[in-house]
Input
Amino acid sequence: MNPQLKEYRVLVVPSPLAGPGALLARMSRFSLLPRAALSAWNGCVMARAASPLEFADAAARLPGVESVSVGRPTAPDMESLSKACRDAALKVVPARKRYSVRVRRLAGDADEADLEMALASRLIDVMAPRGSKVDSRHPDRLIEVVVAEGSAFVSYIRKDGPGGRDFGASGRGVSLFDGGAGSVLATLQMARAGFDPALLMAYDDSMRSAALRRAVESGCYVREGFPRDDCALLLADSSGMTGSMEGLSGRTRDLAFHMYLASLASRVGRDEGASAVFTGIAQGAHLLAAYHRLCSLPVQHPLLGGEAGAPAGRLPAFLRRAAEPREAEEEKGELPSDKEVRRAASGSAVVPIPLSRHSSFHGSIDLAVSALRRLAATS
Output
């Protein structure tokens, strides 16, 4: 461990809907988190990591986490807190920037506002020579102090987590996943609601290779926020539906494909023991009706009405790129019957593709290509 980082810790605060015990257990078993010594701390999780910032970045993506802070433990008396806040202010508040102190008390009955005012007042003379001033309403930097029974923690850097319920508390769910920003946001919202997502994508030879690459890369990105080590992208061979869609175009073809996805999600959901299906659909009443008619499981559309559940701006750059526009097509053809669609979905082979870290997603793409080749050779 870097000697300069020895005294820093990472404080992981669970959301009000998540239990600290369950969060600590999941974090202890999750191999994608950077190595750290974890312990319970006053209803939170304290981590001693070789790279506190790297650990904080990873932990801030886990469902059930309200916030993650990098800082230093200290004693809860006024002198110790004042010294810790002064050290933090000198490190994180640039010259001529405004700052504030926020106190969160986990134990005791002293007034938080009084403690905030007392600590901020002791920083005024220290920070004045740098042109930095206290501003509780619009601070450029915030120094957070968590006070517990017999101990305290002063935060230098704070990151918001997704919040929500414990991962898996709501059971298993199916996410209809194409790797676009919509399906990613819907999947993250699904995990925030306590579901353990099974990522399902329909694929056939007519799709561009870029679509497969996008789905696998996005799958590797979202799985870093799922505290389990056996995440996979379920690739379904949709070639059996191709014949039923022959001659269709425009909205009619789109609707037929979504009818297939609804039936496929119902079948895979039963196999996975899922209790719900999530889609990234943001509009289209005709599509919603197809899902609710052909899927035997409850169907959720978290993006409907513009409620993304997670700011799109927080997504990585490769997901914020706009999809290639498709040329408008004239509607042609007659929709297949529900019976035809269900038959196609029941005959679709489903292949699990193990998902790696996002930094190693090319390996998962190679596995997907090999699996599809084997599937094509046997069909």
